[in-house]
## 1
Amino acid sequence: MKKMYVVALLLGLVPATGWAGEEEEARAETVPTMEEVVVTATKMEEKRKEIPNAVIVKDSYDIEESPARSVGELLANEPGVDWRTRGNYGGASEEIHLRGMAADGTQVMVNGVVLNSPSFGSADISQIPLNSIDRVEVVKGPGSVLYGSGSMGGTVHVITKRPQRDMISAGAEAGFGTESSYRLAAEQGMFVASDFGYYLTASRVETDGFRDNSDLEHTDVSLNLVYDKGDRFDISLYSDYVNRDYGVPGPRPPEGTMDYFIGSTKIYNSDSSSLVNRGADENYRSTLEVKGSPIDQVDLRLKADYSVLESYNLNRYPWSGAGEETTVTNTIKGIETNVHVSPYPWLRGIVGTEYRDFDYENEQQSLDANGAAIPGYASQGDHGVYTHGSFGEIHIIPVRMVKLVAGFRYEDHSRFGDETIPRLGLVINPLENTTLKLNHGKHFKAPTMNDLFWPDDGFAKGNPDLKPETGWHTDVTLEQSMLADRAFVSMSYFKWDLTDKIDWAENPDEPTVFGGWNYWTPSNISSYMAKGFELGAGVGPLYNIRADVSFTYQDVEEELTPGVTRQARYKPETLFRFSVTHIADFGLTSNITARYTGERPGYYLLDTDDAPQEVLDSYWTVDVKFSQELADNWRVSLIFSNLFDEEYATYLAGFTDQNTFVTSQQPYPGAGRAVFATVKYEF
């Protein structure tokens, strides 16, 4: 409570300097309005008040004003959004969980191309550099009709920057902070001929991390080439490359844990349960999109994409020093074509087809107690699957103020067969600034490549006979604009279920060659269900101030054993976010963002237990950013993350002390206070 008093005091010190002028309004941007255009919800440009989904939109102004240093932080604790990492260390994967769904129930796209890993099903959004982003659209609710597998809780669509006509965009940024962190970034875009342009971005990030073996080296480059003839014809070729090398520290051992060595190699200490495990990613993606309107009523689109995603993991066991090196390579090829038709003002529709091919290669090399490769103990597996989906959606306005949406998808998967996916929506606009939305549809998620094909490594193996996860999702949303579009409120109720949930568990019917150990395998054994309420409200700019508040209540239950229903692991019932931005007349932008995450179950001893043995405590974090405009296009910024150095945990994992042979559940700790300063030049 004392910390929140300090936040209130900081807010009280922000001066109110009168109504924002034109420049300040452009910087502050307005809150969402009914007229705001959204692309992701229907694959067509439509106003917010015309789509049946609840949405969140973040633009380049939101990104620049926020103290967030990643897409995950930018969206954290927005209505229905739960941002997760395994302890916030340098290379920790960042995930988005929508409405209590797991990360593999949120489909993440960059310029229409799926970012989710075919191996894990989830997307690591830490790989998306903020300086390349023009806009982020989060569309909540069932999205499987238009986007296929994985879009169960919703879709996060990152749209990158494009060149602007008659101007040159350029910028360079350098930053340095605690934990020996630094970031260098540059971008430049322009039209080099009448209709041909490009936008290039690059960045380099390094940090030692706040724990031992939590370092990160990250490099990314992106290039967007466009040939723009306006609405009639547009071609874009987007490519990006990401290379990351990082330590994997695991959970934090109990306080007082003694250093543990195997030979001369220190395996763990009291700060990190692994000082030797490492990870690396090298990813390349490219997408070509062609779109045009030969006549006013028809819009044609063709998209082709190609990705190579390589993930490396070094894992050594603390009890022996032995382990394995695993390299997984996913090659994805896809093509999609769709046609938008609008023959009448009261009738619009889309029909399309999509084909995607996945090649999965898994290489494992066993290591001895010294971490050296064991000759002859290597395995390699190569597998492939393909999917073919056909979809259609129709939008009808039978009377003014009412819109009906109906969609259908037929999906054919080379491994498990076919799925049929319907969706219905209703939009009612009784008043110009009031919208009521109803959305109901089926969703599904195909098994991941790891689920299907993980090689037999003596402890675990995949299951090629898995079925897809399926369920239904319903939501009702009310949106209201007020005060001449300077205030906006959105309220949603949602309910979803999920059957045939895929979970990895120890199979007592499949013993390993190691006495007392059984294989871990995936199977369709679980079910999940949730219901909840979301509230989002914003006001501004008023007196140079913009404020936003978000609240989410979610009741998420899991059933791993028939008849035993309990609160799902790591799913908080309550999420809260409050943010205030002030823009002073002399160019200083100040932002304070506070987030609250409620307590959540961390560990159940048995699948038949309905009460957790370990609970992760609730916590607050407060981030602050000050950004000052200087003469001649210069800007300096100072960011304080976790200002009050709050201690909290994000996940738990088992740890066995090899000195005492005591096993316990230990936390992945969140990062403490960090300070980061940047200097940026742009024109």
## 2
Amino acid sequence: MKIKLQLSQIITNALLIANIQADEIVISDASKPEFGDYQFNGMMKLAKELKQNPREIAVMVCSHIDITGMVAKVEVAGPGFINIWLNDAWLATQANAILEDKRVGVGYVEQPQKVVVDYSGPNMAKQMHVGHLRSSIIGDTLATLLEFLGDEVIRQNHIGDWGTQFGMLIAYLEEQNTDGNTQELKDLEQFYKDAKVRFDESEAFANKAREYVVKIQGGDEHCLMLWQSFINASLGHCEEVYEKLNVNLTRNDVRAESFYNDQLAQVIETLKSKGISTTSNGAECVFIDGAEIPIVVQKSDGGFLYATTDLAALNFRDKVLNADRICYVVDARQAQHFKQVFSIAKQADMVGAEVSLEHIGFGTMMDKSGKPFKTRDGGTVKLVELLDEAVVRAKETIKDRDVHSNEELDAVAKAIGIGAVKYADLSISRESNYIFSWDKMLSFEGNTALYMQYAYARIQSILRKHDAQIFGDIVIGDELEHRLALMLLKFEDTLTKAAIEATPHTITGYLYDLVTLFMKFYEQNPILKGGIEEEVKMSRLQLAKLTASVIAKGLELLGIKVVDKI
């Protein structure tokens, strides 16, 4: 239900009748219920153009607003704000229309795009750690959301599987006489440390490792076989994490650094032919206006860099995948890198001028002291271990509630624990750093997954207690029911905003406001209490049922499973 769009059209019509032209109509949510449901505050700009008093213009526009259908009342406030109240009957009709809709009233985008979302991107030399959490879940949420709204989404997992470290790793793999599927690779972190010790202690081994790097790059069959077995084992670790996280990345989505290796020389040739790069001290560089240090795309020894691979990837995503929008869900500290790479790609026509290139940056997960999240000995926290701990802690949180069998408890603990980790991350503005806190994320209070889960489970309990068919329509009887129905109908506008701005916290913020409002509604408007008229009871049951559907769909888009009982 694109309410803001409909209101914009109503305001536009009123302006046209009043012989006033406006380039853009911006409708915003009213800050308080007493100010209406929505506001139009574009009078100051119009007043400057028309050289008239903004309040007088607002009064004139209000006189032409149609209040026979969607709009119940309009009112001029302050220097020229137009406060808008929606009609109860109209709200009820719209809410009733989506009661049995699996999409809960959310339509599809009018002009679908082909969108590439690059996210997760682990290094195959090591197991995934907490630093990969944000990219994986923010990227997956964005991809899922865009798909739901009707875009064609191409997930791309740009894994790090190339470079000098792999010569060392496959040499050690060979020395251990393993095929990449045995216990030696169960702990990739330890395997890497052991290989590094061997590299540092043995000059013969170090020379062999360097030789194997050259052989990998040259296509040596034996070395490539060892390399592929290592990559397969490493991807297996990643897939274990993705399964736990309920993240939709598969082997088919992997587009590794090695995939672009054969295209890197052409990138350099393109930059040279267009006069974009310059040879400096034997290296090929691109000098960008305003930047003190050039972007090196080829070292003096002929080696390539991350920027070169990123340019090849951009060219592939434009020319082969035919993307309209390319989103990189990568740490905010890489902002300058992507700004420069995007600029070069556009200059070199590796990406068309009409293609949107976006760096979806995010902040760092911190511990309670405000420092990057580490283990007690200062090492990186393995993501799989963090997720396993989340499930254990969730089980401790709910085990005394006596509503689950042992089998149910395990399943519910998994849904709640993983959901808590994801929601805590997604509820923060992605550009911000945030403090990781078990106590906060597993709390039944505040903007947490558990608060959402509890609200959903509570509604399911109400529906189970009713234990009969729910029939009849939603009929709005008071201010709380008006606000709840309106909030439910705002879901589509919320998702649209989150998709355009790539802001998952827009969805979590909406869910928190919805659940908080429902709890007030539930406390003040009894549903199953005796003595309530049947029509009122059914209306409130329908509102509760629709609320549960929206909560479930919102959490589903965030990759979080709901539970019927907590």
